[in-house]
Amino acid sequence: MWLRQIGCAFIVLCIATEQSAMGNLASPFPVEVTQPSGETIQLYIRGNEKLNWYESVPEARNIQRGGVLSPADAALAATPGYTVMKDANGRYVYAQLDANSNWTPTDVAVGSEVPQDLTRRLIPPPENVQRMIRSRLPEQNIPSRAAAPLGTVKNLVVLLRFADHANRNLPSKADYDQLFNAQSPVPNLAPTGSVKMFYQENSYGKLNLESTVVDWVTLPKTESYYANGQSGLSSRIWEALRDGLDIVRASGSVDFAEFDNENGGAGDGWIDAITFVHSGYAAEFGGVAGGADMEDRIWSHRWTMTPWTDPASGVKVSNYNINPGIWGTSGTAIGRIGVICHELGHFFGLPDLYDYSGKGEGCGSWCLMANSWGFDGSQFRPPHMSAWCKIFLSWNSAQVLSTPDTYEIEPTALPGANIYRINYPSGSLSEYLLIENRQAVGRYEGAIPAGTGGQGGLAIWHIDDSVPENDQPGYPGSPGYPAEHYKVGLIQADGLWELEKGLNRGNANDVFRQGHNDSLTSATNPKSDSFAGVQLPPIKNISASSSEMSFQYGDDPIVVNDTLLAGVVNVEVPTSHSVNFSSDGKAATILIDRLYSYSYGDAAEVKHATFVLPLKDASDDATVTIQVRGYYSTDDGSVGRAILSASGKTAIIDPKTNTASQGSRAADADAKAAKRETRGATAEKRRRGNNPKPSGVTGNDFFYELSTKVVVEEKLPITIVLQTERLTKDSIGAYLVVDSIDVEIKP
User: Fold this and answer.
1) 243 near 224, Cβ under 8 Å?
2) What is the DSSP track for 640-677?
3) What is the pLDDT of residue 451?
4) CA-to-CA separations, 318 to 241, 253, 275, 693, in angstroms, rounded
5) For residue 197, which phi and psi values (nearest 5 degrees)?
6) Cα–Cα distance, 234 to 158 (Å, whole number)
7) How far apart are CA 732 and CA 698, in angstroms?
8) 464 contacts 322 by C-beta, under 8 angstroms
9) Is 183 exposed, middle or buried (0-12, 13-18, 19+ CB in 10 A)?
């Protein structure tokens, strides 16, 4: 419960009775509370279903509660205030930590001058919070079940009216049918679209959520009874669900077998999806609503109860989610889609991606599973799921980048959007980066805040699938980092780590774009390094914010300007450069764009080519790959070999007998030329025709295809030598034809 007495002190704390409970984030709006003196003050409710507390409003100003947050109000709403609790007299006072690091009240009422030694957002250490969680009911040993998030999923929606709400004016069954199933926006009920439409857009049409709404059933007990002083986070809430299911079963209005379609429609004995909607105001708004304090209302959550079984069909209900039927803390407006979509996300197997510890915000407003309220706090525009969630649910896949290039990327809110993944070159495959384009497009991303250069940009996520939850908000410079870090963390482009620090729920400065931060490397702030310090090729030249963005992965092409290859200038790499050359076999100068052929008969090891490829900065490390292709022949059929060497590393070019292995020089050459022509190398035949057979080569020639490569990793420049191997007989004519040498340099 959020209000628990220990001695004479009351601690503002809500602890879930089982660790499997997953709920909604606290409201971003302040709530009005009344002191015993009659004075009204505004406070924020912070945290989540497991840990929540009150904080003072950082500035003395009113924010429209339950409406739409302006960017200024959104920034204010995220600013940490001072932790607040009730004392034994019911006063809202500032909190401090006692000798055991637990909350205890000061004697200073909220509104008075804050004691100088107090710290903003004072939270007990994690071990204390975990101890309080473990002191509650033990976790149920019931396996969590996830509905398959593809195709048609049937969701049973049960409307629960608490006994003390018999006279409460509530939306009708037809209204909730529109909220869940409308195919287009409905004013007042679903002005931005329904739950069904949200999942259609997020899944790119791969999930069709069909909800069947059961009319209000009146429960035998009150809201406060089922809430049990713990905001519904105890087994008492299961009584409400069982009572409601018993009434539905007795009415005969539902065939539960229709909602068990796993295993290709055969069913697995468990209901696929079920949503309960209650007649109260959500506890996550805090304060008093409808005459009930927050601990006497229900905090929206997904949980697992001991199974309820329908006798007729044998279908069991264990996993469930429960949401408020009405919005805010007063009035009769219908509940909104944000929280419902969030809790249904748990039904499909997704975890909460906000920060359970209360210290940070997890993924913030960049993911539904971290903030169902959205950037504007309205829950009309819940954010899209993050790239990690969409991949997890098989709605999208990631293209793994390994080749330096420029890549284009469209908004992930649109069909056909691409997501890129970059694996670290060493370490576990559980750690990697995901890149997506987040823009104010589609029905639900319109609240993405505008920033310099436009709205949105590239969201670059640092993923560590080996971490179970988003409850360790580590960042460079924080205690425990890098061992402590989020499972799914957004690398914020401004380098301020405000999500980890709990300073906001996301803003326009979090994403990368031209005019703000257009690169992520091992030398930038923030860095792209793994948590173990493994470096990646740079991500840079990120374009301006738009629906068609681009970025460069890998280093810039290196221009080779100083080389002994006469005529070779501005060789661009890492794209391969094909060098076709001519030489007498001994000259230092080699010309490009001509066929290189040399005939000799002294059976010596002759260096046909020696050349140097320096970088602009010869101190740079580099990987140089040299690929040679061509033909080798002898006039008596001896199997000679060519040797390619580079700075001490050697590759032997083992010839393979050509299908036209014996015959005239012209016939074999024509056959080779024809083969090359079929590969699109028509220019090669023209070059061959300009090189008559050298003198000294007589009789039939035997031709062998040459193809090999050598890879060298060291500092440039590198000297590359191509030569023939000594032949076994003297005075044997040898003929070397090198069609091309490709050089690729990667720093």
Assistant:
1) no
2) --EEEEETTEEEEE--EE-TT-SS-HHHHHHHHHHHHH
3) 67
4) 10, 20, 12, 85
5) -65, -35
6) 20
7) 10
8) no
9) exposed
Nearest to 23 by CA among 49, 42, 5, 46: 49
Do the Cβ atoms of 718 and 683 come closer than 8 Å?
no
Residue 424 to residue 531: CA distance in whole angstroms: 10
Residue 298 carries which DSSP code?
B
Whether the link from the prior residue into 482 is cis, omega within 30° of 0, is yes
Q: Is 96 helix (H, G, I), strand (E, B) or coil?
A: strand
Read off the pLDDT band of 423 (50, 70, 90): very high
Q: How wide is the angle at C-alpha 28 spanned by C-alphas 161 and 325, nearest 5°?
A: 15
**Which residues have CB under 8 Å from 50's CB, separation 6+?**
14, 15, 16, 21, 23, 133, 356
Tell me what the pLDDT averaged over the chain comes to: 76
Peptide bond just before 717 cis, omega within 30 deg: yes
- Identify the pLDDT of residue 556: 62
Cβ-based neighbour number of residue 466 at 10 Å: 10
424 pLDDT more than 80: yes
**Closest by CA position to 137, among listed 264, 265, 218, 236:** 236
Q: What residues have CB less than 8 Å from 671, skipping those under 6 apart?
A: 658, 659, 660
Identify whether the C-beta of residue 45 lies closer than 8 Å to the C-beta of residue 285.
Answer: yes
Backbone angles phi, psi at 309, to 5 degrees: -120, 135
Domains of the chain are 22-136 (no CATH), 145-331+340-347 (no CATH), 350-559 (no CATH), 577-655+694-746 (2.60.120)
Among the listed residues 629, 642, 643, 618, the one whose alpha carbon sits nearest the alpha carbon of residue 718 = 618
Least confident of 124-128, 184-188, 563-567: 563-567
Query: When comparing pLDDT for 319 and 266, which is higher?
Result: 319
| pLDDT level of residue 564 (50, 70, 90 thresholds) | very low
Scanning 367-430, the segments in alpha helix (DSSP H) are: 387-392
Helix (H/G/I), strand (E/B), else coil: 147: coil
Q: Which amino acid is it at 500?
A: E
Output the six-digit token pair for 575: 């794209």
Cα distances from 224 to residues 4, 161, 170, 281, 301, in angstroms, run 16, 13, 18, 12, 17
- Say yes or no to pLDDT of 135 above 70: no
Pairing mode, strands 52-56 and 40-47 = antiparallel
The helix/strand/coil state of 211 is strand
Tens digits of per-residue pLDDT, 288-318? Answer: 999 999 999 999 999 999 999 999 999 999 9
Q: Which residue has the tokens 């056959």?
A: 671
Q: Tokens for 710, please give them.
A: 């050598």
CA 714 to CA 620: how far, in whole Å? 8
Which residues pair with residue 713 across a beta bridge? Answer: 623
Integer Cα distance of 231 and 282 in angstroms: 9
679-729 tens-digit pLDDT: 222 222 222 222 333 333 333 444 444 455 556 565 544 555 555 444 444
Q: Return the pLDDT at 661.
A: 24
Residues in Cβ contact with 253 at an 8 Å cutoff, skipping those fewer than 6 apart = 214
**368 and 389 in contact (C-beta within 8 Å)?**
yes
pTM for this structure? Answer: 0.72
How large a percentage of the chain has pLDDT more than 70? 66
Q: Return the closest-CA partner of residue 96 out of 113, 77, 114.
A: 114
Strand runs (DSSP E) across 428-491, as ranges?
431-438, 450-451, 454-455, 457-464, 488-490
**Residue located via tokens 């390994």:** 402
Q: Most distant CA pair in the chain: distance in Å?
A: 116
In this predicted model, which residue has the larger pLDDT, 219 or 129? 219
Residue 409 corresponds to which tokens in the numbers above? 């990327």
Residue 563: pLDDT band with limits 50, 70, 90: very low
